[in-house]
Write a structure and sequence with these properties.
Blueprint lengths: L3 H8 L3 H8 L3 H8 L7 H11 L10 H7 L1
Helix pairs in contact: 2-3
């Protein structure tokens, strides 16, 4: 699970902009945002750099996720 959707929403960034910056299709980025696909580590680092956040900010702690259930 990732927090890409939360981070881009907090920053007011559009998925199309992120897709363009990553050089990926909108559909691929939308898959990341909707947690249908998980980005590779390389892509996750690129997303973090583009969004100016740490990689850790893009990840969901499994313990936190269990607490929500």
């Amino acid at each position: 699970m990732n927090r890409i959707k939360e981070v881009i929403d907090e920053k007011g960034i559009k998925q199309t902009w992120l897709a363009e910056k990553l050089g990926k299709s909108f559909n691929m980025v939308n898959g990341y945002v909707q947690n249908r696909h998980q980005p590779s580590l390389e892509t996750l680092y690129k997303i973090a750099a583009i969004l100016n956040v740490s990689v850790k900010d893009l990840l969901v702690d499994n313990d936190e996720k269990r607490d929500e259930i």
